[in-house]
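Lecture 7 notes: from sequence to structure.

We start with a single chain of 343 residues. Read the sequence below before looking at the structure.
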Amino acid sequence: MAEQTTGARPTLEAVAARAGVSRATVSRVVNGGAGVRPPLADKVRRAVEELGYVPNLAARTLVTRRNGAVAVVIAEPEFRIFSDPFFQEQVRGISRELTSYDSQLVLLWAEGPGDHDRIARYLAGGHVDGALAFSLHDEDELATVLRRAKIPTVLGGRPAEGIGPDLPYVDADNRGGAREAVRLLVDRGCRTVAHLAGPRDQTSAADRADGYRDALGDPDPALLCQGDFTAESGARAMAEVLDRCPGVDGVFAANDLMASGALRVLRERGLRVPEDVAVVGFDDVASIAERTEPPLTTVRQDIEGMGRLMVRLLMRLLSDLGSGEPAPDPLITPTTLVRRASA
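Now the structure, written as tokens:
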């Protein structure tokens, strides 16, 4: 059982005296160095626990050349980060995986180009070991900022062509999942299937729109209406589609939030789901999909798991630093159709 200490913090010398070893040996053990025989290392660890010694972060950084911190950069406004459950699940997965590596998360958000210089200075300042970035947009210079910082970086989501070709990434099979969602609607007898699409400048939304087209061949352009992954945009898009094409009997929404907005409009218009209009979303965020009325049929992507995979990919980059190893290949995770009452 650790001793209760009062007054000054225990020193490296106190740990060395308690363990009966040199100060240099203690330093190597507590700061992650190598070359200490296991029996001596065990004695040092016991002394550390008994005295309640806390290693000096600056000293550890000198030995390991690591800060024990990773930046998570999200290219969205602050209100989106804290209101969209997608980001909450992804950050949770990242945080939990970083804990297993004894590393801390530093959250940065880039609301626009004005934030890029600030982020670039921070990343280049040696504060973090690497970066994880997601929700990049096509014309966003954030990928260039990350490359210029010259720190290991992993992206969440496939980057648009030309903006991040040399950065590894983790993504879901957005196109395949969308294709499966629309085929479900067709198989249940829907003849006029609309798509409430996500923002044009994000590859996840573009891939899901392509999956919609794959399943239908050549759908009427009037059946596709653009949104921005928010519930409000889903409601607007649903209303526009119904005004243009009143005979719509199936809807594939680009994410669960947009689907929830669509369900609200269908209810206001007196249309029954799924009897009159069947609805399928994308993400399977439990706080949305299980609580809509009716509960939402949707395409599940393992959002928290993708956050964990991003961390593992980054740690591989860090371990390969200076080895000449090529960057790891992108990781594409499968999606699963989850059947509930809306379709």
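The longest strand covers residues 69-74. Keep this in mind for problem set 3.
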